[in-house]
Amino acid sequence: KLEPHNYLAHYGLAYVDFEKKKYRQAEKQLELALAYREEFPSGLHLLGLTCGHLKNFHKAQNSLEKAIQCNPNFVLAHYALGKISEELQEIEKAKNCYYQALNINPQLGIALFALSLMYKKEGDLLASLEAYTKAIELNPELGQPVDMSTMNQKLAELETSLEEDDDILSQLMEREHTSFQEVQDPFELFMEGKNTSTDDLSETSKYF
To answer: Distance between CA 25 and CA 33 in Å, rounded?
Structure first.
């Protein structure tokens, strides 16, 4: 039987429930943990991820912001807040979250990947290519086999608007090995516990 004040035990149970995709149960355990320790970055972070799965994005955002207040260098909380902000259509806030995550850890490939998708949606294809290339250099698992027909189509679409800027066009042509193929959003891998930064409880415990 758990002691009610044992917030770490509640957090541990929540983590297990989260891994089993029992998000309602995880939320209840996290609420108990946070009732006994409000300034608990890992608990607030996991609650943010849990509420994200439950589509309660405002609660998720609030929890992640509190986690960052407790630990401003909590890089994964910045990244997760970026994804939640995207869900809420707060685009500039999402970008700033990814920038902040990269300021803390420039090697965070998933943040670069998220930015590459945002740049692509905005039509900034060169910035998207650059961010995507850096992301897959850091995390090769983010990439997929190149679809050259897709890349050639994108280049053809760009040719008219870029024909007056030979430098930009040449950069795109030199990097035609990179495509804009759709890949699984790494946030999904992250939320499923497959990202190496969240593989086990000991990794998150360093944020207590």
So the answer is: 13
Quote the CA–CA distance of 95 and 30 in Å, as a whole number. 28
Query: HSE on the CB side for 79, CA within 13 Å?
Result: 28
The span from the first CA to the last CA of the chain, in angstroms, equals 23
At 49, the amino acid letter reads L
Phi, psi of 182 (to 5 degrees): -75, 130
The pTM assigned to this predicted structure is 0.70
Task: Collapse the DSSP code of 37 into the 3-class scheme (helix H, G, I; strand E, B; otherwise coil) and give the result.
Answer: coil
3-state secondary structure of 73: coil
**Crossing angle, helix 41-53 and helix 7-19, to 10 degrees?**
30
Q: What's the pLDDT tens digit per position in 15-54?
A: 999 999 999 999 999 999 999 999 999 999 999 999 999 9
Cα-based distances in Å from 199 to 42, 147, 183, 194, 204: 14, 31, 21, 6, 9
Q: How far apart are CA 96 and CA 93, in angstroms?
A: 5
Residue with tokens 């760009």: 158
Please name the residue that has the structure tokens 């990179």.
178
